[in-house]
Amino acid sequence: MDLRREQLADGVEKISLVGRMDSIGGHDIDNRFAAVVASRKLLAVVDMSEVSFLASIGIRTLVVNARAQSSHGGGMVLASPQPLVAEVLKMAGIDTIIPVYPDVDSAFSALMASSESR
Prior knowledge:
Blueprint: E1 2-7, E2 13-21, H1 23-37, E3 43-54, H2 56-71, E4 75-79, H3 83-91, E5 100-101, H4 104-116
Parallel strand pairs: 2-3, 3-4, 4-5
Antiparallel strand pairs: 1-2
Organism: Variovorax humicola
Domain STAS: 10-111
Family: Belongs to the anti-sigma-factor antagonist family.
């Protein structure tokens, strides 16, 4: 599992996850993802377009870090999940905890709008 970071406009960070968020990949990425997302106040778009599989350990990583970000006063949204991953997010109810958008641009716009209303 790989993690890539990119600065977007207005201080928003795009975090791209690449690979399978299964027991091996999820464990591999958990600490690195938490170090980026949960350690400070942040507005983050998590690009899921290159995540080919999402298991419960990956879901846990996303939820724990989204909640940590929320407690810091920041925000985290998910963008561009592949159809199988989007289905898992919906079936697990994660889309009610972490907003999910079809692409990075709409995720960025929604994140900016929500941060302005805080």
